């Protein structure tokens, strides 16, 4: 009789121990969701390039290589990190966004970046576009009018080792005359007209890609400077945040 009781107690203890072991395993698995997510980012990045960029017509291999290499998740706020490779812009604070991946790739390809180029970027934002350019050209000069964003972007770029990107907090309408002329200029905020200082700072033969128009409804223009004059063509309807600063009031 006593052995039967011990046998039943032993079975109960074994069941309890098994339950506790399973619970511990489940808890441990739940302790590291970020590791699984981070490990999957390279695969998400590759899928982004194939499905969002190549399938829409971006073909320049150097641009595609940069898009595959730069970790977009490092430029996205923590609360949106899991959505880093979705096919849309994401908030980065201060009513600003990190652009849709396709737009970043498309605008970059239109510039025809070369390894010896010096590029001016207006609207640093998160710093992601600057990082893509840094993979392709010699020097990137980037201006952001919202000082906290400029500081955050600069810190991120430095942490990731992009020593050829120079960030300044200031009014992008005025450009960066101390380092002009530039081989190309990329503008990631929309003025109602192309700023004359940017035209002046574009090198002869250089290219500028810029959204122009009213709030949240613009046309993306490609401008080429030939014989001191600009030839322009509309290439894509877009929706960017408006350009801010004193220059936009002129």
Summarize the structure.
The protein is α/β, with parallel strands linked by helices.
Describe the structure.
The chain has 250 residues and is α/β, with parallel strands linked by helices. The protein has two domains: 1-31; 40-249, Rossmann fold (3-Layer(aba) Sandwich). Helices cover 38% and strands 25% of the residues. The strands form two sheets. Strands 5-4-3-6-7-8-9 form a seven-stranded mixed sheet. A two-stranded antiparallel sheet has the order 1-2. Helix 2 packs antiparallel against helix 3 (61-69) and helix 2 (33-53) crosses helix 4. The longest helix is centred in the N-terminal third of the chain and has 29 residues, at 2-30. Mean pLDDT is 86; it is low at 9-38.
